[in-house]
Specification:
The chain is largely without helices or strands. It has one helix and two strands; from the N terminus they run E-E-H. Strands 1-2 form a two-stranded antiparallel sheet. The radius of gyration is 23 Å and the shape is elongated.
Length: 88
């Protein structure tokens, strides 16, 4: 069913396949690309982090998920803040 763009949000069209003419004026790139797997090596750091689960091995891999609440703390922050949060 062909409708205008303004009509596509009307309740009476819920559950119907609609067709409308649009014009794309721009496309924004994704501002953040989240790596799924982060490798790290802390062997050059003199002291161990007390609560780190990798304290004995001093290296490892960590799965970072975009849905992680802590990930939001990294967005738009200075490099020092990001490094501190990653250590945490």
């Amino acid at each position: 069913m062909k409708v205008s763009l303004a009509e596509t949000s009307l309740a009476r069209y819920v559950g119907h396949k609609l067709q409308c003419d649009v014009q794309v004026t721009g496309k924004s790139s994704v501002p953040y690309i989240i790596p799924k797997l982060v490798s790290f090596d802390c062997s050059d750091i003199r002291r161990e982090c007390q609560l780190c689960s990798f304290a004995e091995s001093r290296c490892g891999e960590l799965l970072v998920q975009a849905s992680s609440r802590n990930f939001l703390l990294l967005l738009g922050k200075a490099d020092s803040t990001v490094a501190r949060q990653l250590r945490t």
